[in-house]
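Hi team, as promised in this morning's meeting, here are the two structures we talked about. I've kept the exact order from the run log so nobody has to guess. The first one is mostly here for context; it's the second one we should focus on when we meet again. Sequence first, then the predicted structure tokens.
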Amino acid sequence: MSSSTSPNAAPAEAAVPTSYYERHIFFCLNQRSNGEACCADHRAQESFDRCKAQVKAAGLAGPGKVRVNKAGCLDRCAGGPVAVVYPEAVWYSYVDESDIDEIVESHLKNGQVVERLLTPAHLGR
């Protein structure tokens, strides 16, 4: 130990990184060829496209704001189609364009969870 280092010195605090995005929404776009339920069979791509367009139109896209991403299987097929918003880890099951619009306006823009669209916790694959 060097003479300039005190044995009782507190370790330097690690800098807490800030997230590159405030919120990140992932849409399951998985397609199964074996006939099992999958999000792609429920117009997931169209919902992803709508969300991405709505986020961009609202000026919510970009660093420090919102990122809309495609995902493979999120393993919540029984609740599909599904999307998940981080960092809150809120899972949504949606049906149509108005559901996507509500998720964008309420959650992605204003930070308010859309309770009626929450994927039931017990639903997995």
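And here is the second protein, the one for discussion:
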Amino acid sequence: MQYKASSPEDYISQVPEERQNVLKTLRQTIKDNLPEGFEEGIQYGMIGYYVPHSLYPKGYHCTPEEPLPFMSFASQKNSINLYHSGIYAVPEIHEWFVKEYPKYSKYKLDMGKSCIRFKRINEIPMQLIAELCTKMTPEAWISVYENALKKK
């Protein structure tokens, strides 16, 4: 689902009521554990966490006026989706997450390149998400991002 939101609070207020508390918990988990330097806002129609222009003035190479995206989440029709650029770009983080997931959830991992889909919204492994958030600083993400751009 696409929401026209101006803030994370606005976004959460627009989703179905039965999802609001889960999204509030997920948001707080991310905010409590993401390293200092990332900022929160609405990016690409989702609640996003990004490297602000004050830390990385170049912004996102596709749209430099946008800050460098890192992590986001969205309420979709059949799931809540979490997007994490480190899972996509850093094989060690991907391997760690895939290995750890079964310790926190009895359900099969439903994951794309950077997208983790949670169809059982009341079963999101918040502790695992908290640990995932600590895996990369803004500076580390900038380095990974710039190295990936050099390879293109």
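Starting points for discussion:
The radius of gyration is 15 Å.
The first helix runs from residue 8 to 14.
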